Amino acid sequence: MSFQNTLAYAQAQDQADPLRTFRDQFHIPQQNGQDTVYLCGNSLGLQPKAARAAVEAEMTKWAELGVEGHFTGDSPWFTYHATLAAPTARVVGAKPEEVVVMNQLTVNLHLMLVSFYRPQGPRYKILTEAGAFPSDQYALESQVKFHGFDPEDAIIEVAPRAGEHTLRTEDILRTIQENADSLALVMMGGINYYTGQVFDMAAITQAAHAAGAVCGFDLAHAAGNVVLHLHDWDVDFAVWCTYKYLNSGPGGTSGVFVHERHAQNPDLPRFAGWWGHDQSVRFQMKKGFIPMPGAEGWQLSNSQILPMAVHKASLELFDQAGMDNLRAKSEQLTAYLEFLINGLQQPKEALEVITPAEPSARGCQLSLLVHQNGRQLFDTLMANGFILDWREPNVIRVAPTPLYNTFEDVYRFGQFLAAHFQR
Ligand SMILES: *Cc1c(COP(=O)(O)O)cnc(C)c1O
């Protein structure tokens, strides 16, 4: 690729971008009356303009129909979640019956662990990544304790080698093999939130299964960011939030994948609720839980229509754009960002990209390790209209997303950094 560090080049790339019109479908946060350079879709995706009308339609339905909204109108609330299954399945590479949208991410992770972390005899350990997102760490820790084990003993963490920032796939696979006799579960992020590293989910799943363990992923940073093939990779379960790359609003709803071989198995232990019960007899209100076939059988409560309306509006954009097209643009945008950073006139001791250079091992995000005055640089960027995020102790995460970011956004960020390091 022959990138150029000029505004004219960046603007020409934007004009040639087949996805360029999608930016107009989003509200871009403003600073001093101008569009900010929003590079924070990894933390909270921007609001699709269609979201407000989608919520208002449900508010109107509620105002006009009251309880009747459950069974009448365009998308009756009784089956609202089901309308999200097909577009969700397209985002994560699943069959529609293998996914369900419900609850929030950490709740869903616990529900999945209840079903899929089933320690038996000597097989009770969980393998995960060192430095996982804290909620994942706490979920695993508390589940292990719930089963009467000591987290220190029962949780195996794979860490980067000395002097390295990311995990080597060979180290993950070897650790799985070495612990084959004691592993009950392999559970990690699909993308590490801190470094932006994409894990080789297909290879990890295969190794986990070969070791006799179950395998699941937290896809908070992967869903809507990279192309996933959960069904074909044979993943057992996965969970994700919808407010990061999926642009479905703060604290929005969450998605769950359960591979069909489990989804049809009513004997799996699970924490049940009435919304997971066989729909045809749900309102008979009788004893004896009969799960819905598929991932829907893990539902607890009736659907959260307002956040789901936002999610539905957002998923329509993903369908229009297509994950493969989004990913193609994303690789270009992130490679351009990398090109500009590599061209900065400053030593590695000042600033270093810790995200893998290999495109298949990263999504949108580059994590910049800033060794000196990182917080100051971050604050200066924010004050000048660049919206990014800061992760202690010294990382700035920069995530150009293909739906609403431009090459010009990335160029402007590069210019600002270059000026900063020349001072
Ligand atoms: C963002 C994120 C979460 C957040 O969990 P919530 O239940 O949505 O608050 C959890 N895990 C990972 C890996 C994340 O990136």
UniProtKB/TrEMBL annotation:
It comes from the Bacteria. GO terms for cellular component: cytoplasm. The keyword Glycoprotein does not apply. Pyridoxal 5'-phosphate binds at L105, T106, F133, P134, S135, D136, D218, H221, Y243, W274, N302. Its EC number is 3.7.1.3. The modification N6-(pyridoxal phosphate)lysine is found at K244. Its cofactor is pyridoxal 5'-phosphate. It is an enzyme of class 3 (hydrolase). InterPro entries: Kynureninase, PyrdxlP-dep_Trfase, PyrdxlP-dep_Trfase_major, PyrdxlP-dep_Trfase_small. It catalyses: 3-hydroxy-L-kynurenine + H2O = 3-hydroxyanthranilate + L-alanine + H(+); L-kynurenine + H2O = anthranilate + L-alanine + H(+). Pathway: Amino-acid degradation; L-kynurenine degradation; L-alanine and anthranilate from L-kynurenine: step 1/1; Cofactor biosynthesis; NAD(+) biosynthesis; quinolinate from L-kynurenine: step 2/3. GO terms for biological process: anthranilate metabolic process; L-kynurenine catabolic process; L-tryptophan catabolic process to kynurenine; NAD+ biosynthetic process; quinolinate biosynthetic process. Keywords: Hydrolase, Pyridine nucleotide biosynthesis, Pyridoxal phosphate. Pfam families: KYNU_C. One of its GO terms (molecular function) is pyridoxal phosphate binding. Belongs to the kynureninase family. Homodimer. NCBIfam families: kynureninase (TIGR01814). Catalyzes the cleavage of L-kynurenine (L-Kyn) and L-3-hydroxykynurenine (L-3OHKyn) into anthranilic acid (AA) and 3-hydroxyanthranilic acid (3-OHAA), respectively. This is Kynureninase. It comes from Rufibacter immobilis.
